[in-house]
Amino acid sequence: MLRKLVVGNWKMNGSLAQLAELSAIVEAARGRADVDVAVCPPATLIAHAAAQAGGLAIGAQDVHCNPHGAHTGCVSAAMLKEVGASLVIVGHSERRQDQRERDEEIRAKAEAALAAGLQTIVCVGESDPDRQAGRAVEVVTNQLLGSLPDSWSVGELVLAYEPIWAIGTGKVATPADVAEMHAAIRRNLAQRFGERGASIRILYGGSVKADNAAELFAVPDVDGALVGGASLSAAQFVPIIQAAG
Ligand code: PGA
Predict the structure, then answer these.
(1) Which of 19-23, 101-105, 119-123, 214-218 has the least mean pLDDT?
(2) Which CATH number fits domain 4-30+41-86+98-116+126-243: 3.40.50.1860, 3.55.40.20, 3.30.70.100, 3.20.20.70?
(3) What does the DSSP 8-state code read for residue 237?
(4) Which residues lie below 8 Å from residue 51, measured CB to CB, with a gap of 6+?
(5) Ligand 1 pocket check for 126: Cβ under 6 Å
(6) Mean pLDDT over each residue of the chain, to the nearest integer
(7) Ligand 1 centroid vs 177 CA: distance in angstroms?
(8) CA atoms lying within 13 Å on the CB side of residue 209
(9) pTM higher than 0.85, yes or no?
(10) C-alpha count within 13 angstroms, C-beta hemisphere, residue 52
(11) 9 vs 30: CA distance, rounded Å
(12) Residue 81, Cα to own-chain centre: how many angstroms?
């Protein structure tokens, strides 16, 4: 079994004052030697968060695929690393939708992040119409093919399965659906990467809360969680960390 990883994605939420929540999260993470914990605040807070994270991993929610240049509004992997990020999320469905990011671009971002030494979480997930049409596994398999880089070191590449219809909606995929998808992803990783595919942690994301986390973590091939709304408060996030142990 892989060591579980619980990642908070604050999205476009938070402020300097919100960092007060971090200290309780840092404490909870410190007490759990068996679980990896990370928080991804907005880019503006990364340096502040890293300064008070005391060993808790701090990450970014996006990165540009180039190291520098004329890309107004963007930040590179080296820039994120310099201010204290050790990981990054790429290909979140909100960016796939809002910024129209395509698999090819997400793969380039993942490659740039890995090259800079950032642990990289690549997100995949189907829409509700895809699932209703029975195409969930096919859609996710295609995203894996297009957005996962070929070259990575063990521990550096992480996958997050986040069904779009479960994100921020309070609707959670059933354990049976999660089991089916995570098994399909695991098979796909094994086909593509051989034995090394077994080392990639597969997180579940989409309305993970204190009251459903334990059930989700018990599903085979669920190696952690990517948590949005419930990661904004220590009171909600810490029980999820505890459920992962
Ligand atoms: P949620 O978000 O936990 O608020 O559903 C998850 C995510 O988008 O990573």
Answers:
(1) 19-23
(2) 3.20.20.70
(3) H
(4) 84
(5) no
(6) 96
(7) 17
(8) 12
(9) yes
(10) 16
(11) 19
(12) 17
